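During the reporting period the student researcher (J.K.) took over the structure-prediction task from the postdoctoral fellow and processed the backlog of single-chain submissions. One of the processed entries is reproduced below for the supervisory committee.
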Amino acid sequence: MKVVGLIAEYNPFHNGHLYHIQKAKELTGADYVLVVMSGNYVQRGAPALLPKHMRAEMALLAGASAVIELPVCFSLGSAEYFAAGAVSLLEKLGCINAVCFGSECADKELLKKIADAASSETAEYKACLREALKKGASFPLARQTALKNIFADDTLDAILGQPNNILGIEYIKALSLIGSQMEVYTVKRAGSGYHDKNLREDFSSASAIRSLFACDKASVPLAGQTSADSFSLFKSEILPHLMKQVPSFCLSLFSDAYTKRYPVCADDFSLILKYRLLMETPASLSRYMDITGDLASRILKHRDNFLTFTQFCERIKTRDMTYTRISRCLFHILLNITAGSMAAYKREGFCQYARILGFRRDCSALLSSMKKNAQIPLVTKLTQTADLNVTGRQMLSQDISASDVYESVLTDKFKIPFINEYRRQIVIL
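J.K. obtained the following structure tokens:
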């Protein structure tokens, strides 16, 4: 039995993701596709447009055999932590033969070469990195400058400036650091670039598709809107474009849940975040992951001018602190993700359990293999956690709390009943 592991967010699921699943099976000859997917929060420092169980169902319909949730501490992490968490999860399942990721360059050997240079952290690399940071560059740009200097190759800008290439390099680094035997494959990203906001006829970016739902704006106009109004808006303004961008089997899910369980955007969390910030001090802010003393000072300095989540990110970002980093940090505050807890997770080998969000009935052999070979507990019911160690219980508790916060936002925004995370059912197709 051959199993290929994919690391994804599906925010939202679209034609490019379907292509990736199909191509991964073709390249690897895999019998099964296991997806490690971000839950309700994603790596760019934002809530997912759609809830995790909806996105898991779309992936299963597209041919994924099973979907496992990446804990929120990693899904909201930097590229390094995101990759380390996801790769550790795949490795600890004990049955994954290969990892296949998308990249803009699709040159596996070049990405490996860059990953090796970044992992070795030679004196030359560290000196170049320090110099770039000293000049005010953000960490991603400083790293890009250091690697370009080491290779004496200006063309690396085109490689290191692309988000999927960056993640690919981090996946390879993470695999190397744990001595994994999983084989690496990469699929060339088709169609739009990651940040492209314009819809295309073939493969549009997730960013462009999200813009259909106004999720990058302050809010979706729902006040006074009836169900009939919402469906009419969806049918006339969104569906004609969406039909070209997502697989047909996803359309009913998008249609049925519109203004009932999605769209969700960062500004929907504004009031919760403002409350949390009002409770913080310089010392308490510095406990959270990725928050330096300088950033803590900026947050407190501008706290009284807080209007919305996105407005506050724009207000406190600087040349060396990108919007994405700021947004991640604010979600770390909101969800109580501390530097101390992340250090403990790292010491314990990152992921401490594998929570299954969904699976296909015809893939029972894969589930049996995971149960037999996994080095960490498989979580199918949140009440059955006796096999988890102390660190694992802390990580799971953090996940449950983060999901309940997300659900609270849905409850308030769409005026629907609150569904506690313990009542969520695994998606089975």
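The committee noted the following: The mean pLDDT is 92.
J.K. will present the remaining backlog at the next meeting.
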